[in-house]
Task: inverse folding
């Protein structure tokens, strides 16, 4: 997969794709259906996705609470798995945000990227002030020479499939409901960072990862599937994760700490992808370390049983 981060000076071999346009936060089943339509609309063209970085919501409200389901690295990794050949990750800045809908169609879609076909959701808005609609884009396509498909909204057991409903499920500690809308386990990706090594001292060495900038799932303990994405230990493992602020040890910045079952090795700096399977319990403050260790033993046993049944 080639990642293109500009629309003004594009290599000709990166033009001419059939793309799905959107933010693709979480790359849920609605996003996946739009991608499938882009493939079907022009099977001879490279399959692409056009998205934006930073997320427009972050650009317009930088002080808002973290909301993203996936950062750019995790999103790119998921899109590559879906067969995307061209990822147009355009910088969302004042210049791009200031383009009128017609200017966006002319400058970005036609002159810049030379797109063959674009697919958008029925609720798609674009251009300055979100003034352009999916129907407007279709009219521009007929005039300017690119195809447009408007994808219907997807519904599931939780109602409309959307990043908002997925966030709500994760906030409630319902990772399986989130997974039903995502089409895959909700994953937290990133490098393993240094910690205070308390888990190692307790007999449960953990891989610590930041959740900064991401929508925080309900704090507590989860059964997880862990992909080590690189290095000598690359592969998939079962484990238990704790997400939160570690109330046993004072006030701390929220993170995710993961104990991999039946694993031994150094993971510092290695990139992991941690998939949330089931929520076990909330974070607790115990009466001493012995009680904490006893509960961690019980948590790990429960996680092993859950994951063995997958």
Result:
């Amino acid at each position: 997969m080639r990642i293109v981060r500009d629309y003004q000076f594009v290599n000709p071999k990166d033009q001419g794709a059939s793309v799905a346009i959107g933010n693709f936060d979480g790359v849920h089943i609605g996003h996946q259906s739009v991608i499938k339509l882009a493939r079907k609309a022009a099977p001879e063209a490279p399959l692409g996705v056009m998205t934006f970085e930073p997320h427009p919501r972050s650009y317009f409200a930088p002080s808002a609470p973290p909301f993203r389901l996936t950062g750019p690295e995790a999103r790119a990794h998921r899109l590559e798995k879906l067969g995307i050949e061209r990822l147009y990750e355009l910088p969302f800045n004042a210049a791009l945000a200031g383009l009128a809908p017609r200017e966006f169609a002319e400058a970005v879609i036609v002159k810049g990227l030379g797109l063959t076909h674009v697919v958008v959701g029925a609720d798609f808005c674009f251009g300055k002030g979100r003034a352009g609609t999916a129907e407007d884009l279709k009219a521009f396509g007929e005039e300017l020479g690119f195809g447009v498909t408007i994808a219907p909204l997807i519904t599931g057991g939780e109602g409309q499939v959307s990043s908002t409903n997925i966030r709500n499920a994760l906030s409630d500690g319902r990772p399986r409901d989130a997974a039903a809308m995502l089409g895959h386990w909700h994953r937290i990706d990133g490098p393993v960072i240094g910690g205070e090594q308390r888990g190692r001292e307790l007999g449960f060495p953990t891989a610590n990862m930041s959740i900064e900038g991401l929508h925080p799932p309900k704090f507590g303990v989860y059964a997880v599937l862990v992909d080590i994405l690189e290095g000598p230990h690359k592969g998939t493992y079962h484990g238990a994760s704790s997400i939160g602020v570690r109330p046993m040890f004072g006030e701390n910045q929220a993170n995710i700490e993961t104990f991999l079952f039946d694993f031994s090795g150094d993971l510092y700096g290695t990139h992991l992808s941690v998939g949330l399977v089931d929520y076990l319990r909330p974070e607790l403050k115990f009466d001493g370390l012995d009680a904490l260790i006893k509960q961690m033993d019980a948590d790990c046993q429960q996680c092993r049983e859950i994951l063995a049944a997958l």
In short: The chain has two domains: 2-153, 185-308. The mean pLDDT is 93. The longest strand covers residues 271-281. The chain is about 30% helix and 25% strand.
